[in-house]
Structure formats: structure tokens, C-alpha cells
Amino acid sequence: MFNLRTINVDIQKEVAYVQTGATLGELYYAISQKSKVHAFPAGVCPTVGVGGHIGCGGYGTLIRKYGLSIDNIVDAEIVDAKGRLLNRKSMGEDLFWAIGGGSASFGVVLSYTKTLEENATDFVVQWQQVAPTIDIRLFMRLLLQPIASTTVKGTTTIKASVVAVFLGSAAELLGIVGKEFPLLGLKKEDCLEMSWINSVIWYNDAEALKAGAKPESVLDRHLNWVRSGKRKSDYVQKPISKDALELIWKKMIELGNVGFVFNPYGGKMAEVLPEATPIPYRAGNLFKLQLSASWKDPAPNATLEYLNQANHLYSFMEPYVAKNPRSAYLCYRDVDIGTNSFGKASYEEGKVYGVKFFNNNFDRLVKIKTAVDPDNFFRNEQSIINYYSALTVNDWIC
Length: 398
What we know:
By secondary structure, the chain is of the alpha+beta class.
């Protein structure tokens, strides 16, 4: 797909044509070359491919103001299982709906950190109350991770950090946050005002921006490091109580190597109906939770230990996250929640993970898949299944 990288940006019409093999960084750079006041709502990692990102819904720092990437797609070109090139008109609205499943300055808040010794629990309680409801121009990501304590030698504590992007000036941001999130303790020196394209560089690598990285840096498609990792996901619909947070801290400290990323919803995300796109988790969800473990040790026993820790913490979180179904984000590929062998039970197997990803939209996706790819040509271990793939020849004769 890396040969399909054409990007055409029409600022007058405020439309961009982007081929699926382009990276987010290439898209962001193309926009920045045409305008200093335009952006596109998508992820914070420049090396991520446009096609895969949008196919999972696509979210980033502009989510509360502009929603998911798929909320801003007006047309698409696909090649179907028969080799036909289709656009929105020729593919029809059902398939167009389904493919989503699969000013000039910004105030960027520098990473603001608290530990348990510095009242981090109350800080997280207040973040849950504020982050999904504050001014929709403000996206405040919360990171939680176990670290060595600097106050009690030989012990572990929890660090809570907020990293944010605001579509406005630092002065305006200080007024908003000072009133609604006083525990953040935000000061003018904690903020950097910059163009949107520079905020993309900063969010991905703040040190690179400090060292003078130019917008062209987001065009780099080659990672210079390799790290193993495990990601799992949930959605949180009710604030996690202070008592429950303290139990979670205890479990994180006990495990030692697994952290969380909380991504706030609200704003535009609360306005889009669950059935508008395949990604249904909109109103009613306070934030998306990413459970994260990363390691460099290639030894099998090290990998197993990190995976076990991630699964242990995931199980521990069950009382505090969305239920019926316990939900998941498609792009955080997690084979633990179910895979498909494409045998006679493929519908039942597919429903296990499919409902977690798509909730009530799952059956509509299956119906569309059956219509456009009856032979199940496009498949992977967690793909949408069709009704036919679960049937044998004898079933058809009957």
C-alpha cells in the first residue's frame, strides 16, 4: 500500500484527497503547506497509515471538537472482492458506512505530573469530572504509570501526568482550567503556543521540536526503535471512585509494569449517534481507557511476564468499565478477546469480539459483509464474518 500515497489538498473547498498508503504525518504536512489554520482530526503518531487509522474510526487530540476521523470522511474509493474500483456513489451508502469499521495557534500544555505523595488520587478524581465536560477545544490525555518513589526509597508509587492540546491561546486556556480544573495548577510557563503542525511534532517527540525539528520531520516513515508491547482497551461510563482508584493503584504497584492512558470523550463525541458509523461508543462514555505494557527484553519469559501482567490488570478492571458488552477499540488489536477459525462456528466466534468492537452495529456489518464479499476473501483473525462462511455445502442443500 505504500505506493498509494497521493495527497491533494483543496483549501478553498476545505477538502483533501488522500490515498490509503499515506501516513498521518504526510497528510498533516500537506495540509500545513496549504494553510496555517486548517487541521484534520486523527492520531498523534505520524508514522501510522491513513487507511488503517481511518478504518478503525481514528481518534486524536481534536476528538472533542471535531469527533473521529470517520466523522469527517465525505467519500472513499475501494477495490471490492471482485476487483471493482468503487466510490461512495457506486458502492452505496451501506458499504460507505461500513468501511469506517474496519486558530492559527495552539496552547499545548506540557506534561504536568503528580504522584500519590502529591495527592494524585484527588487529581484523577477531578480529571474524571472535568475532562469530558470542559470546553470542547481542550483535549486532556491522562497517563498513569508505576514509578520508583523519590520520597520513600525502595518503594513504588503512581505517577499521573496530563498532556493536552487546546485550540486557542494560552491566556484563554489559563482562565478555563483555573476555574474548572484547579488541581492541575496550570501556569503560563507550562504552556507553549505553536502552529498545529508543530503541535503534531511536539506530541510525538517534544525533544525533537525543541531541537529544531521542521514540519518535514513528520514525513519520516521509518521508526528508529523497536519495542514490544501489549495494548488492551475499555470504555468508562461512570467515574471511578476514590476508593476504587486506590485499589487500582495498589494493583498497579503490585504488578509493576503496566500503565493506563485515559482519553476523554464528550463534546462532538457525545453528539454523534451510535449508529451513524460502525464505531458506536459515543454519548454516555466518559473516556476510553488504554491499558499499556511495553518492553525491550526479547526473551520469551520476559514477554510472557508482561502479557500476564496486562491480562491480570485487565481482569481486575472489570468492575469499573462498561459492561454488556465489555467494549473494546478496534485499532488496539487484542486477540485475547476472541479470534475466528472460520469454521462452522465462525459466526459465533466472530460475534464474541465483533460485539465488543461494534456493539449493536455488529449485525449490520455482517449483513453488508455477506452482500459484498460472500466468499470471505478479505479476512483476518478478527475480521467481520459473513453468514455464508459458517455454512457447509450440506447446509446449502438443506
